[in-house]
Amino acid sequence: MPLAKTNLVWEGDLRRQTEAGGAGMAPAAGLPYGLGSGVEGLPHERYDLVIVGAGISGGVIAERAAAELGLVRPPRGPPGHLHPAPSRAVPRRGPGPRAAPGPEGAGRPRRPAPTPLEPPRPAPRPGRAPRARPKAGRRPCGGLTRGNGGHRAPPPTPPVQRSLIIDKRDHIGGNCYDFINDKGFRISQYGVHLFHTKYDRVWEYVNRFSEWMPYEHRVKGKCLDHNGEVKLVPIPPSQETVNTLFEAGVTNEDEMEAWLDARRPKILNPRNGEEMALSRSGPELYEAVFKYYTKKQWDKFPAELDASVLARIPVRLNTDDRYFTDPHQALPKDGYTKIFENMLLDNPLIDIRLSTDFFQIRDQLPEHTMLVFTGPIDAYYASLGLPKLEYRSLRFEEEYHEPEGGFYQEALQVNHPGPNVDYTRIVEYKHKPNQPTEVYDKPGTVIFKEYSTDVGEPYYPVPNPANRELYEKYREMAEKEPGVIFVGRLASYKYFNMDQAILNALEMFDNLKEKGTLEPSTEFKVLPKA
Question: Which domain holds residue 492?
Answer without folding.
Answer: 13-68+162-215+329-383+462-515
